[in-house]
Automatic annotation (TrEMBL):
CDD domains: REC_YesN-like (cd17536)
Ranges of residues in domain HTH araC/xylS-type: 419-517
InterPro entries assigned to the protein according to its UniProt record, in alphabetical order: CdaR_GGDEF, CheY-like_superfamily, Homeodomain-like_sf, HptR, HTH_AraC, HTH_AraC-typ_CS, Sig_transdc_resp-reg_receiver, Tscrpt_reg_AraC-type_HTH
Matching SMART domains: HTH_ARAC, REC
PROSITE patterns named in the record: HTH_ARAC_FAMILY_1, HTH_ARAC_FAMILY_2, RESPONSE_REGULATORY
Protein name: Helix-turn-helix domain-containing protein
4-aspartylphosphate: residues bearing it: D54
Location(s) in or outside the cell: Cytoplasm
Domain Response regulatory: 2-119
Keyword Ribosomal protein: no
Keyword set includes Phosphoprotein: yes
Alphabetized UniProt keyword annotations: Cytoplasm, DNA-binding, Phosphoprotein, Transcription, Transcription regulation, Two-component regulatory system
Amino acid sequence: MRVLIVDDEEIIREGLAQVISWCELGLELLQPAASGEEALQRIEQECPSILMTDIRMNGISGLQLCERAKTILPDLEVIILSGYDDFSYAQTAIRQGVTDYLLKTSPPEDIIRTVLEAKRRITERWAEKGRDVLQAREEFERKWVQWIVHGEVTEGTIEFLANGLSGDKTINHFSSGCKVLIWEASGWNGPNYSSRLLLFALRNLLQDLVPSCIYLIHQQTLVCLIPADDAQDLPRYGSWSRLLERAESLLKCSIRMAAGSSVANLENAHVSYEEAACALRYLPLLPDKIIKYLDIEHRRGGKNIISPEEENQLGVILLDNDPVALKVWTAQLYENLIMDPECTFETAMACLRSAAVAGHRWMDRTVRMLGSDGEVHIESSLEAEGNGFIPEAALFRYLHAIMSSYHAQVSQGPESHVDRAKAFMESVSLREVNLQHVANHLHLHPGHLSELFKKVTGRSFVEFVTELRMKKAEELLSVSPAKLSEIALLIGYEDVKYFSRLFKKHYGLTPSDYRENRSSI
C-alpha cells in the first residue's frame, strides 16, 4: 500500500517523510512530489493508495489535484494538509472526495492515526470486492477462535487453518510447538478512535515486524500464536520487550502483553491460551509490561479481607470527611496487594470488595448508633471492569460517595460534635477510647466535650463509654471463646475483677454466668 506526499514547501514534505516510520506501519512511501503537476504525472504510473497533499500550492491547488487524481484512481484516499484552520476549505474538500482534513501543525500521532484509518478503509474496500475472500476469512477466524479460545478441535480443523495461512506461515512452521500471547493496547482517545482501531493498527504493525506468527483480534485483545522457539523470529529486536517498546513508540500508545507457556503441538494451543488469559488478569495488578504465566502460576493466594486495623483506619477517615487521607488509604491497600508475592487475582478482588463492604458496614453501624431513621442513600456503585478487576479509582469513588452521603444526610445540626464523638468511638478499638483521645481527635477541649455529652445525651462521657464497652463485652461473650481476661483487655479493662463487677451491675449476671446462660439456649 503506497503513500504519496505532495507539498511545494520542501521542509513540510521532507518532514512528513522522515517523522513517521512508514515502512514499519506497513506502508510504502513514494518519493514526495513538489507540486500538483508533478503528482499528476506520476499518479497513473505509481498508483498510490493514499495521497497527502497541501491544500494551497502554486499552480494546481490541493483541491484541484484531488479532483483530477480521483478521475484517474477513483478509490484513492486523499488527506488534505493545511496551515489554515478554515472550515470552508474543509467543506469544499469533503465535496470533492477528500476523506480527511488535517492541520500541518498536527502532532505525529494524529497523522499516524489518520493514515491508519485510511489504510483500514482501503483494506475493507479490497475485502468487499472479494466477497468469497471475506467469507473465507470469517470462516477462518471463527474456526480459529473455536480452536485457540474454546479448545474445540474437530477433525480437519488444523489442516483447514493451515490452508488459510499466508506468506511463509505453514503448518511446519509450528512443528516444534507453539504458545499464545495476548496483547492489550490503550491510549488513543477522541470521538473517531476506538479500541478496535488501535488493535487493528497493532495487528498490522506486528504482521509486518514478525510475519511468522498468526494474529487475530478477539473481543478487546489481540491474540497471537507464535512458534515455541520464538527467539529466531525476532532478529531485529532480540526480545519481545524491545519489540513492544518499538510498537509503543510507533503507535504512540501503551501496550502490555500476557504470555502462556509453550505446548508441544498445535492441538494443545488452547492450553497456552488459557494460561495467557490467566496471566492477562494480572496486568492491572503488576507493574510489568509483560507477564508470563510461569511468573504467576506458583501463587497460592494472599489476604482476601482487610484487617481490623485497616477497617478502623477507614472508619476514622470516613468520619473525618478527609478525601486526601482516603486517597492515601486506598492507594496503600492496592500497593500492599501488588507487593504480596502470593496474591492472586481472586484473593485481591475479594480483599478490595471487603474494603467496600467495610465502608458500607461503617455507614450502617454509625447511623444506627446515632439513632437516625431510615437508610442513607449512596449516589454510587462499585464498578468493576469486564474481567472483574476493580480499579483503584473505582474503589476510591465508592468509598468517597459513602463518606459524602453520610456527611450530607446525617452529620448535620447542633449535635454534630457529639455525633462525631460517638461515631469515632464506634470506629476505633475500645482500648483507645478515653475523653482526652476523643477530644483531641475532634479538636475540642476535654471539658467542653464532657459538657456537650451531658447536655445532649443526659449521660456523662464515662457512662456512655461504659455502656458501649458492656455492649461489646456482651457481643464477645456470645460469639467468642476468648478468656474473660482477654475480653476485658479488648474493651479497655486491665483488671478483670473490675470488669466483672461493672458487667454484673449492668446485666445482673457475672460474665461467666452470662456466657453459660447463652450457651444453654
